[in-house]
Specification:
The chain is α/β, with parallel strands linked by helices. Strand 1 and strand 2 form a beta hairpin. It is built from 15 helices and 14 strands. Helix 1 crosses helix 3 (124-137), helix 6 (181-195) crosses helix 15 and helix 11 packs across helix 13.
């Protein structure tokens, strides 16, 4: 079966088309600048062929039609006919407490997704818009929703509940949800294969480090704690997000800077993190270059980023009691050797130490980077789209082939 995986943002739609018999990605790409008048479709094929097309795309429905058109194109495509697509899988950021696993999308599910909008107002509306557009274009195909939050929904109450009046949890569902669950779930599976043991026998700490960052404590394949919380703003220092902050400090800033709710939200989500500390960029590559050139604020940003990661690693060592492996993934986790080294430095007493020669090779491949005889430390490129495709296949059933 061929499955089309889609990730819809505010002005973009990312896609990958999988042939599930061998789990091969046949084509992938991105429609960006939707609604701007200068939309672009970037399309890549498994054999190295690529094309960049200008397109008049005013909404997500037109974006989906353009994606289908290029997939069917004699010059650029990989499909002979539209019906070669057997099902569609959709990434959804927030499923609240309702969705603890991936689901076949129907009217009831869509109503529940709308109820989750207030939990993820920056993400879910766009996810829903993309699903609606796809269901119009592919009304005869099954659609599956795969949630970033679902993987963390087995956390114990002591890990997800905040120290607020319990009535607030009962009334509004104020709790830690966690995010990046699709990515954490993928690398846990790969780590088990690399180590050569069943997932059920392993305790792992997984770090998804990119523009958004999260860390999770995984016991026997189950997330028992994670750094992101009620929203993706909690936890590690990120590209533009502050991460952990004393809530009273935010109230103080709001009072002294005369910030309203929207402005405060922008402060902690869009103007903080690596960007706010460095004053340069939210891109770790640019910040590391500036730090090497002597920029003190850039050095400060790198130090804060790595320190936060190390602190959470230490916390999750305590939570798990025994750790069989540490996994780095995401754009920074996969490609920034200095960040990995700094996050592990000084943890020799916990049998964690990095082999510098192995760590310094950034080749985009899975690898062990730990010193011989020490706890396994791995770099594993994530593949969220493949997880979505697998869940979609499992839910719609092989009888649809």
């Amino acid at each position: 079966m061929k499955i089309l995986v889609l990730n819809s943002g505010s002005s973009s739609v990312k896609y990958q088309l999988f042939e599930m018999e061998n789990e091969v990605c046949l084509a992938w790409g991105l429609v960006e600048r939707i609604g701007s008048g200068g939309a672009i479709l970037k399309h890549y094929r498994y054999d190295g062929h690529k094309v960049k097309l200008s397109a008049g795309v005013q909404d997500h429905a037109q974006a989906i039609k353009h994606i289908l058109s290029v997939l069917l194109s004699p010059n650029h495509g990989v499909l002979e006919k539209r019906d070669d697509i057997g099902a569609l899988g959709h990434r959804v950021v927030h499923g609240g407490e309702k969705f603890t696993e991936s689901v076949l999308i129907n009217e009831d599910v869509m109503n529940e997704l709308r109820d989750c909008i207030e939990l993820a107002p920056l993400h879910n509306p766009h996810n829903i818009r993309g699903i609606n557009a796809c269901m119009n274009v592919f009304s005869d195909k099954p659609h599956v929703a795969v949630f970033d939050t679902a993987f963390h929904q087995k956390m114990p109450l002591k890990a997800y509940l905040y120290g607020l009046p319990f009535d607030l949890y009962k009334r509004y569902g104020i709790r830690r949800f966690g995010f990046h669950g699709i990515s954490h779930r993928y690398v846990v599976g790969r780590a088990a294969k690399m180590i050569g043991k069943p997932i059920s026998d392993l305790n792992l700490i997984t770090l998804h480090l990119g523009n958004g960052c999260s860390i999770a404590a995984i016991r026997g394949g189950v997330s028992v704690d994670t750094s992101m919380g009620f929203t993706p703003a909690e936890g590690l220092l990120m590209g533009t997000r502050a991460g952990d902050i004393d809530p009273a400090a935010l109230l103080y800033i709001m009072s002294h800077e005369n910030l309203n709710e929207s402005e405060a939200n922008s402060l902690i989500n869009k103007r903080s993190g690596l960007l706010g500390i460095s004053g340069i960029s939210n891109d770790m590559r640019e910040i590391e270059e500036a730090a090497k050139s002597g920029n003190e604020r850039a050095k400060m940003a790198v130090d804060l980023f790595s320190y936060r990661a190390k602190k959470y690693i230490g916390a999750y060592l305590a939570v798990l009691g025994r750790v069989d492996g540490i996994v780095f993934t995401g754009g920074i986790g996969e490609n920034r050797a200095e960040v990995r080294r700094n996050a592990i430095d000084g943890l020799d007493g916990f049998k964690l130490a990095i082999n510098k020669d192995k760590n310094d090779i950034n080749d985009g491949k899975e690898k062990f980077i730990n010193k011989e005889g020490m706890t396994k430390i791995m770099v594993i490129p994530t593949n969220e789209e493949l997880v979505i495709a697998r869940d979609t296949l499992e839910i719609v059933g092989v009888d649809k082939q």
